[in-house]
Amino acid sequence: MIILKKVALASLFIASSAFAQDGGLKGLLLNDASIGLNAGLFSSLAEGSYMDFGYGLNYNKQVNSVVGVQVGVMMGSLTNTEASNDFTSLSLRGILNTSNLSINSYLKAKFYVAGGFNIMSIGADSVANALTPAVGLGMKYALSNKFDLDLSATIVSPSLTNNPVSAYSQIGLGVNYRFSSKEESVEWNNPLDAMYGDIASVKTEIEGLSTDSDGDGVSDAFDGDNNTPEGVAVDGKGNALDVDMDGIADYADEDPFTARGVQVDAKGRELDSDKDGVSNSIDIEPNTESGATVNFQGKEIRGAKGAFMPAVYFDFNSAKVSYANYERLAAVASLLQANPKYKLKVIGYADAVGNSANNHKIALRRANAVVDALSSMFSIDAARLAAESKGEDAPLANESVKVTETTADGQVISNNLTRMNRRVEFVIE
Predict the structure, then answer these.
(1) How far is CA 53 from CA 58, 74, 352, in A?
(2) What is the C-alpha to C-alpha distance for residues 131 and 129, in angstroms, rounded to an integer?
(3) This model's pTM is above 0.70
(4) DSSP string, 88-127
(5) pLDDT, tens digit, 9 for 90 and up, residues 233-269
(6) CA 20 to 30 Å from 179, out of 104, 242, 315, 374?
(7) Residues forming CATH 2.40.160.20 domain(s) in the chain
(8) Which superfamily does CATH assign the domain made up of 272-428 to?
């Protein structure tokens, strides 16, 4: 036993000397390595045996995330009804870290199996030596970034030498100090966990590229507005189209063709501060008094007989008065209410698309629609309103001219001036 103790102490001295050096051997011995103190209970598997206490020291070196090597020395006793034999055991074992063979969600514990040999010196005077196979399993629990709690169970087989040792069991509990931190140690960093994390991250990113919350055809990863209503046309960035660039998306814009740069209200209609039916952008006199008669430029007309009032415009092939024109009609109604003796000619017009007879009819329908709106919405006596049609005979704008504009996102918009000719005008009689 004395000889084996000397061998163990010499090994520890050599290891300590290596730790004190700064060369490659130090790195080889310290990287992914640990040293530990342990204590255990020993019991021979033969009949009439008692439980004995032992203690020891071990050094563990992790070759990679799965395979490791352990060298240790243990001192204890094996007692039965006949005798008690002290022993010193020098062990060499291979360690298989089973937790790193699969994805492990519990990162504070590692399970392992071990197998190897013990060289045992038995008796106070080393009267016998034995070579015994040993297998076991255990669990390491991370107490901190540097310390592990090591719980193990080992079965030692009968001796393979001429000095037989009966089989015995060992249950041990130890504390290991890691020279590498938990974050750096390959033992505590499962490559399968890292790979799974990378796959999960890539999967999340791919799902993000394919997710389209608002169903507008633009994935959430590139969508500037993830809450556009269903069916709304959007640009390449997922923002709802705003053709006239007034800040009000087309789907909520009651007048989606306002001139560029004009001020609009929350519904996309151009502002008319003095409520005279003429928009601010073309109103020469933007502060006319309420009820005043103005021309198409918003200039007050004194002696209003024969004067023209703001026009009402219509969509293609339509005789429906749009909401965007209600304020113009309100200005006309205000004038008629302030001047009970006034009567109006309500004259409908059409563009040059289609045949002349149909255009004359739709122009008259537009005039009648305006008469109905003034009568039903503003309580103007229909007897004061006379509808008539001039069809396509008196165009206001040249329909052959096209206006082309390029939006901020590069979209080219081209419109002709036919809408200017689809109108209803008022003449005070």
Answers:
(1) 17, 11, 111
(2) 7
(3) no
(4) EEEEEEEEEEGGGGS--S-TTEEEEEEEEEEEEEETTTT-
(5) 777 777 777 777 777 787 777 777 777 778 788 777 8
(6) 104
(7) 2-195
(8) OmpA-like domain (3.30.1330.60)
